[in-house]
Amino acid sequence: xxxxxxxxxxxxxxxxxxxxxxxxxxxxxxxxxxxxxxxxxxxxxxxxxxxxxxxxxxxxxxxxxxxxxxxxxxxxxxxxxxxxxxxxxxxxxxxxxxxxxxxxxxxxxxxxxxxxxxxxxxxxxxxxxxxxxxxxxxxxxxxxxxxxxxxxxxxxxxxxxxxxxxxxxxxxxxxxxxxxxxxxxxxxxxxxxxxxxxxxxxxxxxxxxxxxxxxxxxxxxxxxxxxxxxxxxxxxxxxxxxxxxxxx
Length: 248
Known about the structure:
Helix content is about 35%, strand content about 20%.
């Protein structure tokens, strides 16, 4: 697979990165990324993956755009209120980079469809706002043996990790129980930071450049501008990836 002169010019500055070159850019063009959620986190993830030259983005969101979304969901604007977020995201991405193929899925992620929805993606980017869906993505990624890039935010705080079974703990190891559902506060810059880091983790994995944050959890306290990284460990009793689950 090659890319056009137009694409070579578009991606010139990133192709200059050590180890990237045309080969790295072709790897991105061949890649399929599943983005779960086109909201606060999904917006910067989608934008930065698109302008980096990912070949195919699968954007999944069943929700429609509301005025209260616009303080953080920069993939959309006020002219699209009431439109499905995946469809709105497709419009934005295609305007930004016509070389990217965007497939939209306007379905809620459920136990009975998660595997088919993710299909043959190379990596899953978790941009959800609830842990029940996150757990489904985690289990499907493990079954498919593909990585999952976890990101979450609240207020001015955020978290990030790169999950790749069996090398790392899974999401259930890190969070054995889902926190209570709530309407949580958020300022748009917070998912902007965490979502951009999720995009970078995805790009590093697909190009093979740099090191992913495997076996670690980055925790951001935005109010103090403090970033801390914690070592995380596998739970041998994890119902998803633990010893018992592997033997059944």
